[in-house]
Amino acid sequence: MAIVLSAIIGSVVLALSGCSDQSGQTEKTLRVGVITYSQDDPFINALTDELKAHLKTMESEERRIIVSIKSGNDDQQEQNEKVEEMIDAGCDVLCVNLVDRTAPYRIIRMARNEKIPVIFFNREPVKEDLMQWDKLYYVGCDAEQSGIMQGEIAAEYINSHPEVDKNEDGKIQYVLLEGEAGHQDAISRTEYSVKTLMKNDVSLEKLSYQFADWNRGQAENRMNRLISQYGTEIELVLSNNDEMALGAVEAYRKVGYIRKDWPVIFGIDGLEDALEAVKAGEMQGSIYNDRVDQAKEMAKMAVTLFEGKDLDQESLKDGRYYFSEYKKVDGSNIEEYLNAEEEEADGKNMEP
Ligand code: BGC
Ligand code: CA
C-alpha cells in the first residue's frame, strides 16, 4: 500500500514539474503566446483559430500545449507590454502579429534576452530586423502574387463580359479600396492588381483610391461617399481584402441599385462571407489567403523550435521566411471552396 501510494504521489509530482520519471518518459508543456495586432480583424481571427486547432492536434502523452491569445488593440506600446507579460508568465515560443511592422525592436530585444524564439506572422518586419537574431522567423504570403492573381481574375472577367463597361467608352472606371498605409500586403496588392489588369489589355480610368483600414464598416462609408459622387459611373471595385469588398457590397445593397448598375467587385482572403457573396453574384472573385497552411506551418515551427530541433530548411526562404501560396477563387470553383468551408466548420479541417 505504502509503495503504491508513493508511486502515485511521485507521478503526480512528476506530471506537475514536467520532469522525467524513472522509465525515461517525459511530460513537457509547451506554452505558446500568440499576440495579434487587433481583436477585430476577421482574417486574423480565422488564422489564430486555425493555429489553436493545429497546436491541439500536436499534443501527445509526452507533450501538453497551452496556447494563450492576446491582442495589442492597435497600439504598439500595449502590444509590447503584453508580450512582456507573456514572457514573464513563462511562454516558450511567441507568435507575433505586429501592430507596427516597422517597430519590432523591443519585442525582439525582450525575446532574445530570454532566448524565446519569435514567429512573426502576417505583418512582415523588414529584413534587417528579422536578421537581428537567428531565432526570428516570418510566416505569411507573397503579397505581389495576390495582386497579380486579383488582376488576372478581374481581367478575365472583364474581357469576357463586355457589359462591365456600362457606359461603353472602352475604359473601365474603377475605385480601389486600400488596406492600410505601410502594410506590405496593401502596397503590393494595389500596385500589382492594377498593373496586371493593364497588362491584360484592360484600359482603366482611375476614379478614386481610398484607405479603409481593412475594415468592412469603413469601406462601406467610403463607398457611400463615392456612390454619391459618381453614381452608376463606377464599373469596377478592386479591394485589398474581402472585408472591404463586403463593405462595398453592403453599400450597393443599401443604395438599392438594380444589379446591372452595380460594378464588379473583387476581394482577397477567401473568407466565408465573401465566398457567399461570390456565389450570390454580388462579388465576382476573391483570392484565397491560405490561413490553414500558414497556421499549420506556425504550429509545426513552434513545436520544432521548442524541441530544439532544426527547421525544415527546404521550405524556408533565407532560412527564416515561410510563404504560403495564394489561390484564385471565382465563379468557376466557388463550390469547392464553400464545401471546404463547411467541412472545416464541421471540424474536419480540410483544405480546398
Ligand atoms: C489580410 C487582411 C488583414 C490584414 C491584417 C492581410 O493579409 O488580407 O484581411 O486585415 O492582413 O494584417
Ligand atoms: Ca466605361
UniProtKB/TrEMBL annotation:
One cellular component (GO) term of this entry: outer membrane-bounded periplasmic space
Protein name: D-galactose/methyl-galactoside binding periplasmic protein MglB
Source species taxonomy: Bacteria, Bacillati, Bacillota, Clostridia, Lachnospirales
Residue intervals of the Periplasmic binding protein domain: 32-309
Domain of life: Bacteria
Assembly behavior: The ABC transporter complex is composed of one ATP-binding protein (MglA), two transmembrane proteins (MglC) and a solute-binding protein (MglB).
Compartments where found: Cell envelope
Primary location class: other
Keyword match Calcium: yes
MF annotations from Gene Ontology: carbohydrate binding; metal ion binding
Gene3D superfamilies assigned to the protein according to its UniProt record, in alphabetical order: 3.40.50.2300
Signal peptide as annotated in the record: none
Keywords for the protein's UniProt record, in alphabetical order: Calcium, Metal-binding, Periplasm, Signal, Sugar transport, Transport
A Pfam family: Peripla_BP_4
